[in-house]
Specification:
Length: about 100
């Protein structure tokens, strides 16, 4: 007679499913949009709005002015390092799009 198996906790079953489907990377990429203000700080967050992250790691961010877009493009390596710290789902490029952020 075999020993009965215990039910798998829902959190474990969900984590296993997401891992098998390769969705953890995408979820971590999408989490950047939600965590944007925390990751980049209040000054940058005040003039930007992240719009989307593509599956191949391109983050589109709406910026309030071309001056800010220029400044942020120079800061991109540091911003990318902060965004990717501890993530499997990485952003490889930020595209700064000039236009009034919609909040």
């Amino acid at each position: 007679m075999t020993k009965p198996q215990r039910p798998t906790p829902l959190a474990d079953a969900l984590a296993s499913y997401l891992q098998k489907q390769g969705l953890i990377k995408r979820m971590q990429q999408a989490g950047i949009v939600e965590e944007w203000a925390t990751l980049v700080g209040p000054q940058i967050a005040a003039v930007t709005v992240p719009e989307s992250v593509t599956a191949d790691g391109i983050l589109r961010v709406r910026v309030a002015s071309s001056a800010w877009a220029q400044e942020l493009s120079l800061m991109s390596p540091r911003i990318l390092a902060r965004l990717n710290d501890g993530r499997k789902g990485r952003v490889r490029e930020v595209r700064w799009i000039v236009g009034q952020p919609i909040r």
